[in-house]
Amino acid sequence: LENLQPEIKGLAQRLRHEVSVRGKQLGWSEKVARFHFARNMRRIVTELYVRDNCHPFKATVLLWVQVPLWLCVSLALRNCSVGALGPAGAAALLQEQFSSGGALWFTDLTAPDSTWILPVSLGLVNLLVVEV
């Protein structure tokens, strides 16, 4: 989208000139000239988006998919870690598995990460995914 901006600006200037010349020839009012300019500008910009396959909605698709997915996974992990699932026996068993099922420096998955390695690395990985 950013790469198209200089081309769109140049096309807009040319179209503005063409519409003003045509408007003077046909005696259009300012309102009619603005209407024709806006309609033709929308058509031109849409053709550029199709040509370069870069519709603005494509830039937001990741956001509309990633945010709900992140929210659901976060809530599921929270419910698992605090034992908010099913009967008390199953919750206690799950809590016990989380408290002894870690690896490396994080042996207890119910305790906060005191080294901040996991939160920082998760943040950096998410930033990398967004930038890529």
From TrEMBL:
Main subcellular location: membrane
Membrane association type: Multi-pass membrane protein
Alphabetic keyword roster: Membrane, Transmembrane, Transmembrane helix
GO molecular function: membrane insertase activity
Signal peptide (UniProt feature, chain positions): none
GO BP term, example: protein insertion into mitochondrial inner membrane from matrix
Localization in the cell: Membrane
Alphabetical list of InterPro entries matching this protein: YidC/ALB3/OXA1/COX18 (IPR001708)
GO cellular component, one term: mitochondrial inner membrane
PANTHER family for the chain: CYTOCHROME C OXIDASE ASSEMBLY PROTEIN COX18, MITOCHONDRIAL (PTHR12428:SF65), OXA1 (PTHR12428)
Protein name: COX18 protein
Species per Swiss-Prot/TrEMBL record: Erithacus rubecula (European robin)
